[in-house]
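As a warm-up, study this chain.
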Amino acid sequence: MILGLPTDGLLVIGMTISSFKALETECLHQFGVVPRKSECRGSGIKLTWLRDLKKQLQLTDEESIQSIIQFSWGLACLAHLYRALCRASRFDCKEIDGSLTLLLVWAWTRFPFLAPVHREPRSFSLANRWRNWECGDQRFRYMKLAHFRKALDDLQEGQFMWVAYSVDRVDPDIISADIYMHSVVWSATVPLVSFECIEWHATDRCRRQFGFVQGVPHQERNLDKAHEEVLTGPKNFNWVIATSHSFWVMQWIIGIITF
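Now compare it with the structure written out below.
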């Protein structure tokens, strides 16, 4: 709803190979061009190269579009955001990565009293509500941290928007019917999987968000060593069948099928 990323489809996972030669081959296959060594870091590509490439390449042919939309990018985005929030909660952490646009707009949607003035988006996704908000709400720009802390301290029960996408809150013309086609999987309690990242999607703890009655949550899942995995250093293996990940990949498949 917020970013327009699909939540159904294939896992964003596969092989990682710590070899510049393999990276060249893959980039040539995917993009038709290869980065220079100065545009890489280890076996990864710097974001600046990918951003420049995005400006040059136009995704227009139907084959490329169908190839991209078959993956669950929403699931991967949420997995990395959960991981980033977990790390940011540590006392010695000074910064955060992940999709901060998703985090910010989620907070503004659920806590309207914290958000700048929004306008109804003319097109999907709902993040467009606050596009160029700096120009439309000068007052918000000068609010201090103390203001937001006090607003959270004074939070009343009815100020949190549990069902944020109901028709009385979102213009039905903005969200097409096909967005809701797979909405049944939104409340599935499954692991979120994206390469090295495994996070638990504990929807049983926020059932009201999906219009359900909140019951007693299940015992939280212990991700054990999978939660400590990082994508640094040589990682020459297939994450789908990696010993620490194969169990969670299967749990995701079973959870989606049975749900």
